[in-house]
């Protein structure tokens, strides 16, 4: 039931806050987001709809379960002091919520922020319907913080839009070079066949600089607003599709853990050292055909299989003895977990999508 969330990420001082001010017409109002050449946004700012202009403290937002930000309490009081909400009576915000984030500063360590910055970013990334990663022509270098950010965006490529902001500060030839350099910098970080959509414009209320491609910038701006509108319109379909995608991941994970457990049980004898047996399986799952058997016996795609290394960490935290085989988790009345999730993936969620496509109320 929550509104679509649009997340703004990127290096410091690339124009994230200016872009939000511009889209919502907040310039020269008491509630415009503070902007400047130095790193200015140190808070996570949530801009949402309200009957009148109003600022809400992070502690109040987290305490109000109706706002769906209460899970943020787990990041501690230091973070809640860096969370702020702004209510604005704006038409667009009746249909969408914007989130402005602190700019990435490459030479700053997470500890200096006083809260787990990457974990907080991940929380917002997991809930965002659209993610604007904003750059400007002077900040195209990719450091460790930005690399980490793109690692967190893995699997959300369809929601990413790259913004090359302040484009009217360059002559045409320079702009083309910068556009190429941006793709060159980002190519190793976005490992998908189809590159994300890049919008090139200057998102602020000032007139475009003379002798630049004003028509192009205006068309790009209109395209971005159409894109935003499309995401709002397709909110329900996107949500169901994402639930189905998540269900497929859960199913594969369940099958893999089951296979690890079955292999462990098969290899254990009365005299075996359980820890050594399982370490052998985790270190070299291919020797025991763990992943290959999943592909052979189910309709799982090899491209959907997770990283083998991840399971070393997973079983380091969750001992294999704490799991039950999937076949033991079936009951006469309740059925089997795996059958239920298979039914949801194959029939129930596609039917739900179909009913929306036909204009029915799901």
Automatic annotation (TrEMBL):
<dbReference type="InterPro" id="IPR051943">
    <property type="entry name" value="TRAFAC_Dynamin-like_GTPase"/>
</dbReference>
<keyword id="KW-0325">Glycoprotein</keyword>
<keyword id="KW-0732">Signal</keyword>
<keyword id="KW-0703">Sarcoplasmic reticulum</keyword>
<keyword id="KW-0472">Membrane</keyword>
<dbReference type="InterPro" id="IPR027417">
    <property type="entry name" value="P-loop_NTPase"/>
</dbReference>
<dbReference type="GO" id="GO:0005525">
    <property type="term" value="F:GTP binding"/>
</dbReference>
<dbReference type="InterPro" id="IPR045063">
    <property type="entry name" value="Dynamin_N"/>
</dbReference>
<protein>
    <recommendedName>
        <fullName>Sarcalumenin</fullName>
    </recommendedName>
</protein>
<feature type="domain" description="Dynamin-type G">
    <location>
        <begin position="1"/>
        <end position="241"/>
    </location>
</feature>
<dbReference type="InterPro" id="IPR030381">
    <property type="entry name" value="G_DYNAMIN_dom"/>
</dbReference>
<dbReference type="GO" id="GO:0033017">
    <property type="term" value="C:sarcoplasmic reticulum membrane"/>
</dbReference>
<dbReference type="GO" id="GO:0033018">
    <property type="term" value="C:sarcoplasmic reticulum lumen"/>
</dbReference>
<dbReference type="Pfam" id="PF00350">
    <property type="entry name" value="Dynamin_N"/>
</dbReference>
